Amino acid sequence: MISLSFISIAQEKKEVKQLDSIQIKLEQAIQEQLKNTPKELNIIVLKDILKKLTPKKVKPPEQEGWKSNGKFSLLFNQSAFNYDWQGGGTSNIAGNSIINYNINYKKNGLTWDNKILADYGITFLKGEDFSRKTNDRIELNTRLGKRIHQTFWNYSFFFNFRSQFAKGYKFSKDPDTEETIRTEETQFFSPAYIQGGPGVLWKKSNDFNFNIAPVTSRMIFVDEKFTTIPDYQDGDYFGLDQGETARFEFGGSLAAYFKFTIVRDITMENILNLYSNYIEDPWNIDIDYTLNLNLVVNQYISGNFAFQAIYDDNAASGFQIREVVGLGLNYEF
Question: Does residue 152 form part of some domain?
Fold first, then answer.
């Protein structure tokens, strides 16, 4: 046994000497060649050789099957003015809670993306009798896709539901008493939008994709009490005629999503939804654009800016604009 170990050690020393000898000869040969060529050319050639010798990073296979993630955010905003403040303004405090949950499936070219979004915000103004909503939304999205060969294109089918949690009011002042008057305009499931249809999906990643659905059906549901008020005119309430509780539309839609990192810890999310009703005024395209800017402070704290612009001529004559800025507490799950 001892003799075998000595033989093994001797062989290892011999191999080391051979490698050292080869290394010395290789260095001498390279140095001899480098003497006869310009320095700039030597650098280019050596870089190219090192690039070829460096092993390429192997991209890990993409996870297949179910994958889920969620985020809960709580935003705060406050303004305060004392009695002697002469610049104008009203003291207020506001809060906004957001739940964003994704559960997706991917295997053998088949994708199934599902998103649940719940958003509710409220503000309290000093001297006002009623609180006011800053945002109120429930949205469910599901989209099924089947990849077309080895491309980013997919056959797709989508379904979308959108409504709100609580009652919405229009505020005015009593000309005699100056008291605040609120008139109910919306409530849960009034309105509620349900739409879906087949189409084609271009999906480079979960952060960059768009879906085109040229054949889309949409239903709008409302409570009857909003379409049976005195002096109601057809189409006044989300396009519904007097006494109706549902409206059917047939058209085309486009949904696009793009999220990217501006600089470290700052991301921008863009969501665009377009819809055209072929049956009535197809050139009046409904637009819903949302921009979310997120600044990460640490694992639990972030700064958030949200901007949303909606154009729907059945709901309002112009753009509906919403903007929220605040400091947020986050919890990811």
Answer: yes
What's the CA gap between 304 and 297, in Å, rounded?
A: 11
Measured distance CA(295)–CA(302) in Å, rounded: 5
Mean pLDDT, residues 266-288 taken together: 97
Count of alpha carbons within 13 angstroms of residue 292, beta-carbon side = 14
CB 211 within 8 A of CB 201: yes
| pLDDT higher than 50, residue 3 | no
Query: What does the DSSP assignment read for 151-186?
Result: SSEEEEEEEEEEE-SS-EEEEEE-TTT--EEEEEEE
Q: Distance between CA 322 and CA 75 in Å, rounded? A: 15
Does the global pTM surpass 0.85? no
**Is residue 69 domain-shared with residue 46, that is, in the same domain?**
no
* Coil vs helix vs strand at 85: coil
Range of the domain at 250: 65-332
Residue with tokens 């103004």: 125
Q: Are 163 and 188 in contact (CB under 8 A)?
A: yes
192, 276: one domain: yes
